[in-house]
Here is the input.
Amino acid sequence: MKKYDVVVVGGGPAGVSAAISAHNTYQTKKIALIRRESISLIPCGIPYTQHSLEKVSSDTLPDALVTQKAGAELIIDDVVSKKDKVLSLASGDQVEYDKLVLATGSSPSLPPIAGADKKGVFQVVKDLEYLENLKRYRDTATNIVIIGGGYIGIELADEYLKHGKQVTIVELEDHLLPTTMDFEYGDKVQAVLEEMGAKIVLGHAVRAIEGQSMIRAITLDDDTEIPADIALICIGCKPNITLAEKFGLDYDARYGIKADEYLRSSEKDIFVIGDVAAKHDFFTGKLTDIKLASTAMAEGRLVGSNLFEVKVIRRYLGVLGSFSTKIGSIAFGVSGLTENKAKEMNLDYEVGEATTIDRHPGSFVGASPIHLKLIFARYSHVLLGAEMYGGDSVGELVNMLSVMILNKMTDMDIDTMQIGTHPLLTASPIAYPVITATVDAIGKWYREDVA
Here is the structure.
């Protein structure tokens, strides 16, 4: 039996980040990382294995991150049970730990659709061989149906359209990206995909998958039949709580293993991070389904630093939810509250909007329009949320706005902030989108006050 000071279970972004952070903070500690997969994939890159990346194996987390950067021993095995502080592995080996980090991630949800077990029906599984098989099916397929209009669904649609396939998206709600973006942004995504050739079916569920042993078509709840050589089910994921059940940890079956603000579980010396850890919403404090690699890596860094004593003080405010993607040539981003969510929460808010160009002058090659929508609390004037679409600059604009929301910046903080601009890199200083949208909101308040 081998003994380690720190054992991390799970080889995704959360687990690797925790191992690296632990090594950087406690350089004399002996660390092991256990994962069941021989090759670990980058979750956010999985949709792009279907066209943009030549090989699925191009989307891998290098083992050197574990063995060299984290200085840890990499163990390819599966944890099956625990007694006291000893883990039993599927191979029969045993591993003793002082501190244990569970980063076992999540798995795709499978709805009760008749025929979902037929050949040609896939989910987005973090497994190299599975995804290579999906890619082989893609090569001979003509019609691809994607069930679910969230981020993974629309990104896969974008990939298959670029590969020349006929793609249909079926979404139960009335708009794409229904839980994370306002309707006009989901409609913009729909318009981009339709321009690329996609068919979008909204407000309907898939009742059955037709065919003998092999998929032939899907049937909707209104009896409409859509031809399909491949059906991809992309309706979210659920936390892998098997070890929590075996170890007797407190957990919620839908949201994950419960933990305190320092991600300590109900059992002393066991920490939980990433998709398997239950998350709380930044604004409401309620449990949330948001699962992001960026959040997982932040949790990994925090836990790695605090394993043996609290070195990094944290005031946990909950998960903000910052997303970005690119469909066709247009990038989309959101952070914090949408207007729809603000209405659901009965918040008193104001909206500021701006449309500008991300270079100045706008005649530069590569310049792109940027449309930005900001949500402010009406009386505190604090920034609550942001949505945008436009050129590639959206990717970093989302991150900047996330920092503003987390730090509770007001409209006047933003209006008077000092920024750096350059013709080849940013929008004009007199038309900077964040400030312009903020001024739009301020102007609405001012006009209302005067009236």
About this structure: The mean pLDDT is 95. Residues 110-235 form a domain with the FAD/NAD(P)-binding domain fold (CATH 3.50.50.60). DSSP finds eleven helices and 26 strands in the chain.
